[in-house]
Design goal:
about 450 residues; alpha+beta; D-Maltodextrin-Binding Protein, domain 2; 2 domains; three-stranded antiparallel β-sheet; 20 helices; about 40% helix; globular
């Protein structure tokens, strides 16, 4: 097997694996759960460690990087149970809330649950979550974490309610073939000059159009660049406000749609994915750290099936993508792990948090192996100084760019517990406006109505 095929095979194995650890219990995806009020401990509740999440990303990290170094004495006789519900249409939050508010059986009491920044405050400012210092973490343990990852988890009393193994600053990922063809260079520093601010970015979009290439794939691609740079939260005192940055996204996306600078795709749809092939006629995508291993890389690869029915993976442009800072710093996503107040297994929670979010060597290993950007400044610094190269990005050290971006993330007065619904419904409602089917005001009315179906107490 050639070197590139070994790299591809190894990377795909990591991304596509969904192994079941017989040593640590079953993998039933149920949705009943514990009570935020807590109850007396029982042998049954101690013998099952329930983790609520919305996909298997953390499960993969847990099995590969935590399980072998777990405290085996703590896990003696304890099985882990993964309760996985999709994040789409608020399903995960709904199922989690049901589990937090009811007591089904001792075996289903929640021990740990995961959350994203878009709805973090809902659980941070809740009695269902536990101060990580109560669990046993110290300021020294968390000293190397990026401040914004702690700010997301800080409640109104200053308690940190969760920790993350990753930071998620974003970059502009671009097709090096089209960069050479249209701009005459694929060097990240030189390409950055063509995308350094939004006016220049739009000028470059016009150049790309002349060459038959769209600058970005669709309506949603630049959204996080704007939504993460707002001056105020979506919701304050029950009232929704459309920040000027969000209106700027609307205006830009309307311009790009009308001028043919995008392909009118929506995030995650087939046409959006197709543009990530090396011949997909799309210049670039805005992705945070998880976007490379979980999205861009697998979507870039070409697959075929031989006569025997065996799937084979081809190069498909592996090594022909690059990263640069782009016109505006931003972050996108991130996953935090939180201890639940119902848990009878707090020492296990502490063991997981320490080894999965505070251990430098584990953080280095995850970044080097998975291309994930871990939440440990010293680990990242040592990788950069050790000559880190990303083969998918043609050997580029994109960690240095991510480090600069991570330091710029500021979430002061930007988050509300309604952010997931507002972000999703705003993007969805604006599509008819971009396509010329409604006015902006009509799209706003649709947005409000759709948000109120989830959060009926909000007004515009």
């Amino acid at each position: 097997m050639t070197k590139i095929k070994k790299i591809l095979a190894g990377t795909l194995a990591v991304m596509m694996a969904s192994s079941v650890m017989t040593a640590c219990g079953n993998d039933d995806s149920t949705s009943s759960g514990g009570s935020a009020g807590g109850s007396n401990s029982s042998d049954a509740s101690k013998k099952t460690y329930n983790i609520y999440c919305w996909n298997d990303e953390f499960k993969q990290r847990f099995e590969k990087y935590y399980w072998e170094q777990r405290d085996t004495a703590l896990w003696d006789g304890v099985e882990v149970n993964w309760v996985i519900n999709t994040n789409t249409d608020n399903v995960y939050q709904t199922k989690l809330d049901e589990a937090l508010s009811t007591q089904a059986t001792d075996e289903m009491k929640i021990d740990m649950f995961l959350c994203e920044a878009d709805y973090a405050l809902k659980y941070v400012d809740s009695d269902a979550s536990v101060d990580v210092k109560t669990i046993g973490l110290t300021d020294e343990d968390m000293a190397d974490m990026y401040q914004y990852t702690k700010d997301v988890m800080t409640d109104s009393n200053g308690a940190i309610k969760g920790v993350s193994w990753q930071a998620t600053p974003g970059l502009f990922l671009y097709n090096a073939v089209y960069a050479r063809e249209v701009l005459g260079t694929d060097d990240p520093a030189e390409v950055q000059e063509y995308v350094k601010d939004w006016d220049t970015f739009t000028e470059t979009a016009a150049k790309m159009k002349e060459a038959g290439i769209v600058m970005v794939s669709g309506f949603d691609d630049t959204y996080r660049c704007f939504s993460n740079n707002v001056s105020a939260p979506w919701v304050t005192d029950g009232k929704i406000t459309v920040d000027p940055q969000l209106k700027a996204w609307v205006d830009q996306t309307k311009e790009y749609t009308d001028n043919g600078y995008n392909n009118k795709t929506s995030l995650w749809d087939d046409a959006w994915v197709a543009g990530q092939k090396i011949d997909g006629k799309t210049f670039g995508y805005f992705f945070s750290t998880w976007g490379i291993p979980f999205t861009l890389l697998p979507n870039t690869l070409e697959t075929s099936v031989d006569n025997g029915g065996k799937e084979e993976v081809g190069n498909g442009g592996y090594g022909e993508w690059r990263a640069c800072e782009g016109p505006q710093s931003y972050f996108w996503g991130g996953t935090w792990i939180m201890g639940c107040a119902t848990s009878d297994n707090v020492e296990i929670t502490k063991d997981i948090m320490l080894k999965m979010t505070c251990d430098k060597e584990t953080m280095k290993n995850i970044t080097a192996t998975e291309q994930d950007y871990t939440n440990n400044k010293t680990a990242i610094k040592e990788l950069i100084e050790g000559g880190y190269e990303n083969p998918f990005l043609g050997g580029q050290d994109h960690l240095s760019l991510l480090t600069e971006a991570a330091e710029k993330v500021d979430l002061s007065n930007k988050l509300s517990k309604y952010d997931q619904a507002c972000n999703e419904k705003f993007q969805g409602a604006m599509k008819d406006y971009f396509l010329g089917n409604t006015t902006y005001e009509e799209a706003l009315d649709t947005f409000l109505k759709n948000v109120q179906e989830i959060h009926g107490d909000l007004t515009m």
